[in-house]
Write a structure and sequence with these properties.
With 121 residues, this protein is mainly α.
Length: 121
């Protein structure tokens, strides 16, 4: 996907050691950690902040997936765009208190597993 820029210039290691996939994994990990911590409390500011960050992440990914320069196969892009749409819709419903955030955590965890599996392949 490569939607998340390298953190090489920000003290997170050199670009030689960190791949774009590593950066994407790291961002998913941080946002998912926020969601998991927020899920332990009530529907308060932590939930709002975590869901907002998750919506930002999925908006960036959707924009990258929809761009003509994205190198993923069309079928993969379509599936990920569908997932982005669900995550954003569910996030908006969670912000209004209508649904819980567990599905957002599950989706992000699946994305993280996928990023690690492809890196190992």
């Amino acid at each position: 996907m490569n939607a998340v820029p390298s953190f090489a210039g920000h003290g997170y290691g050199s670009s030689i050691l960190r791949t774009p996939r590593d950066a994407e994994y790291e961002v998913f990990s941080r946002v998912t950690r926020m969601l998991r911590q927020a899920a332990q409390g009530d529907h308060g500011p932590d939930v709002i902040a975590a869901v907002h960050k998750n919506n930002q992440l999925w908006t960036i990914l959707a924009a990258d997936l929809a761009s003509p320069g994205n190198g993923l196969p069309d079928e993969v892009r379509a599936g990920l765009l569908s997932l982005a749409g669900f995550s954003l819709r569910h996030g908006h419903q969670a912000l209004s208190g209508k649904v819980g955030i567990a599905p957002l955590i599950d989706i992000n965890m699946a994305m993280m597993r996928g990023l690690r599996q492809e890196a190992a392949a």
